[in-house]
């Protein structure tokens, strides 16, 4: 097994700290061992702190972020339910697809990729749909680098009586996520982004209104593996009824990743992500490059960098990986070939990494024959045209 | 995080070899990194060797064994399909439940817990059910220690035109599993049993007839996360379309666990499991204890040891854990309180471990005031009564 040492500056996984990686090498224990049960309680308590929630039903689903998405939708949706999904990138599309497979009648609220979902558009959809069961939006769209503000959408959704489901895969641990303040009823995340833990678990949280909707179901949940009532029997304090064998080693890693996060402090960690994003932006500007997602709503942890005219996106990305051991992500869907996705997530978000990337990118573009002056002139012309 | 060092002799996880545990500490790479893609190909090739199959669609699902069960059933079953499920323990029950949640009309073939599913019973069900889409059975019932022979059921199922789905969670790597010879169309397993890799992945294999059934579907697969067609775009050679972020570190561990298995040799590994089972049985007999699952069909890797009259099952199990750091499993369902489940799986299956368990168990029973002579006399009386 030959594994190179990469600087992971793509859309995730991010680099995991050494102590998170070595945590997985600890000896295995059983999934009902008192030592593991204590660890489960620690993880639940720490996840509540990170999600800023008091929801009892907060725990990691034994799958990756997409399993967490399916967990939320499959437990809350019954056949025929009307749901509203904000779609401004790949993960909004995915939520709409998963909801549809649950038998929902899906109304999408579309926005240009790179832009946010506007509260007004959600308000209009809530008026248009007869009996909306839930509204689902992506907080931080990993495919475009846009951060949709949640607070107003939370109030609108609560006022309508619908549930709010929030995708926090890329936001959790990298910028403010306040489930209780924002009136979020159900949320899911992934471990491999700003928590800087390897992929394999999906932290989720269900609030009292979500659990009430589960209790009121008329149909069984179509997934046995993701059925929250069965999972509650294993994860809730005091019961511990065997459901499936939890991924022990992954939970060791998550425990250590959460410990490190809380040791740093939530606010401090968000500030670090903002600071290094600003450093990246300044460096990109100096190279004549720009971040193309909506101004004022750009993610700190995932930066959609426009590929300059005449530059081969895949070739540059390939050289970054092969010559510099730096992974950055490609654009998806309509953004394919047009952006690089540069992640500054969790442990990866350091000034040193920003500098390494800028130096590598600058050299490759220079060797590709594009001068900074040319790119800066083109960017200035574009900005001037946009302003006129 | 305080993790004790346990001897894992329960129903799984088993102890993982040191090199499997340290494999997870290797640095992360991206899920589309050429190095990871090469690793994926290695894993697929090694899994085919272990499953004894040439099925192209052989790979690890990103969830535990129960996710693999759901993967098989959710992709092969459409609403209204008639399916036959052998039920002789917890995992047969679970398959029937999952199939029912897929919208199947389920006919169960029941057998006493501890006994096998008889081919005649499957033949009868195949005649009784109008259009059986599939037959699903558990090869090695982890809840009872019974090993159902597959070969004849495979022929019967193939002759009927139905698909055969096989649960190999506890059998794979511990005794013969021959997917192609036995005409198995779909199978799933878990990493944490006889592969001696931490829990978190579920190796699965779909043969050509299963893939044909997938292509002929009239409804979308109800799970997006487990949709084999989408997963094939990521796992099949040459395509690598992003679906979800694979659990990178868990795949490192599986790679190393499979490498160790093939280095030992399949047949040699099965023989080791048989040898240590026989040693355990001899030792249990000397202690006046017996294995209670059906004679001639007892699993080597999971032994259902009868709890003697007057002995507190949970108290003995608790002392094994607390005083000797040995985990054994409790009975489930109708076997609760009546058996201990003693696993000799993968790396845990050694003569040393058998001796350690026998010494500890002997001491605890002795201290509980039961003499070997009393138990041996009771066992002899019971055997004599059964024989008369």
Describe the protein.
- Two copies of one chain form a homodimer.
- Chain A has 388 residues and is of the alpha/beta class.
- Chain A has two domains: 246 residues, Type I PLP-dependent aspartate aminotransferase-like (Major domain) (Aspartate Aminotransferase, domain 2, 3-Layer(aba) Sandwich); 123 residues, Alpha-Beta Complex (Aspartate Aminotransferase, domain 1), CATH 3.90.1150.10.
- The first copy, chain A, has a seven-stranded mixed sheet, sandwiched between helices. A three-stranded antiparallel sheet of chain A has the order 11-14-13, with helices on one face. In chain A, strands 1-12 form a two-stranded parallel ribbon.
- In chain A, strand 13 and strand 14 form a beta hairpin.
- In chain A, helix 2 crosses helix 9, helix 5 runs parallel beside helix 6 and helix 10 runs parallel beside helix 12.
- The longest helix of chain A is centred in the C-terminal third of the chain and has 21 residues.
- Chain A is globular and about 65 Å long.
- In chain A, 56% of the residues are buried.
- The model of chain A has no long low-confidence stretch (mean pLDDT 96).
- The interface between A and B is large, with 71 and 71 residues.
Secondary-structure-derived class of chain A: alpha/beta
Number of helical elements of chain A: 13
Rg for CA atoms of chain A:
21 Å
Q: What's the multimeric state?
A: homodimer
Could you tell me the CATH topology label of the largest domain in chain A: Aspartate Aminotransferase, domain 2
Strand order of the largest sheet of chain A: 2-10-9-8-5-3-4
Following the backbone from N to C, one meets helices and strands of chain A in this order, namely EHHEHEHEHEEEHEEEHHHHEHEEEHH
Helix residue percentage of chain A: 40-55%
Q: Most extensive interface, residues per chain?
A: A-B, 71 and 71 residues
Tell me the strand percentage band of chain A: 5-15%
The total domain count of chain A is 2
CATH class of the largest domain in chain A: Alpha Beta
Instruction: Say which CATH homologous superfamily of the largest domain in chain A is assigned.
Output: Type I PLP-dependent aspartate aminotransferase-like (Major domain)
Mean pLDDT of chain A: 96
CATH architecture descriptor text of the largest domain in chain A: 3-Layer(aba) Sandwich
Major sheet of chain A:
7 strands, mixed
């Amino acid at each position: 097994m030959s594994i190179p040492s990469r600087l992971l500056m793509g859309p995730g996984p991010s680099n995991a700290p050494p102590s998170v990686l070595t945590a997985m090498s600890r000896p295995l224990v059983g999934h009902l061992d008192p030592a593991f049960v204590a660890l489960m309680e620690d993880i639940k308590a720490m996840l509540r702190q990170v999600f800023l929630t008091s929801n009892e039903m907060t725990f990691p689903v034994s799958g990756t972020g997409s399993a967490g998405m399916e967990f939320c939708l499959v437990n809350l949706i019954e056949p025929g339910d009307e749901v509203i999904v904000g779609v401004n990138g790949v993960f909004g599309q995915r939520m709409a697809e998963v909801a549809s497979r649950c038998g929902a009648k899906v109304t999408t609220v579309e926005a240009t990729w790179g832009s946010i979902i506007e509260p007004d558009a959600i308000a209009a959809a809530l008026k248009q749909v007869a009996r909306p069961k839930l509204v689902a939006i992506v907080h931080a769209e990993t495919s475009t680098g846009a951060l949709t503000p949640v607070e107003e959408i939370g109030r609108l959704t609560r006022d309508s009586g619908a549930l709010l489901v929030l995708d926090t895969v890329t936001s959790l641990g990298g910028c403010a996520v306040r489930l209780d303040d924002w009136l979020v009823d159900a949320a899911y995340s992934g471990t491999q982004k700003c928590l800087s833990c390897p992929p394999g678990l999906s932290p989720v949280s269900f609030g009292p209104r979500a659990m009430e909707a589960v209790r009121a179901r008329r149909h069984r949940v179509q997934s046995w593996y993701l059925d929250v009532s069965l999972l509650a029997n294993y994860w809730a304090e005091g019961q511990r009824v065997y459901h499936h064998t939890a991924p022990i080693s992954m939970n060791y890693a998550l425990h250590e990743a959460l410990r490190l996060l809380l040791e740093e402090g939530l606010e401090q960690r968000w500030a670090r992500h903002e600071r290094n994003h600003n450093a990246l932006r300044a460096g990109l500007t100096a190279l004549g490059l720009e971040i193309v997602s909506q101004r004022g709503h750009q993610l700190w942890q995932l930066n959609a960098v426009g590929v300059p005219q005449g530059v081969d996106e895949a070739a540059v990305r390939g050289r970054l990986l092969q010559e510099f051991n730096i992974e950055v992500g490609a654009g998806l869907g309509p953004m394919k070939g047009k952006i690089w996705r540069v992640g500054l997530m969790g442990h990866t978000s350091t000034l040193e990494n920003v500098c390494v990337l800028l130096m590598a990118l600058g050299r490759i573009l220079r060797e590709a024959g594009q001068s900074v002056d040319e790119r800066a002139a083109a960017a200035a012309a574009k900005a001037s045209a946009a302003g006129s």
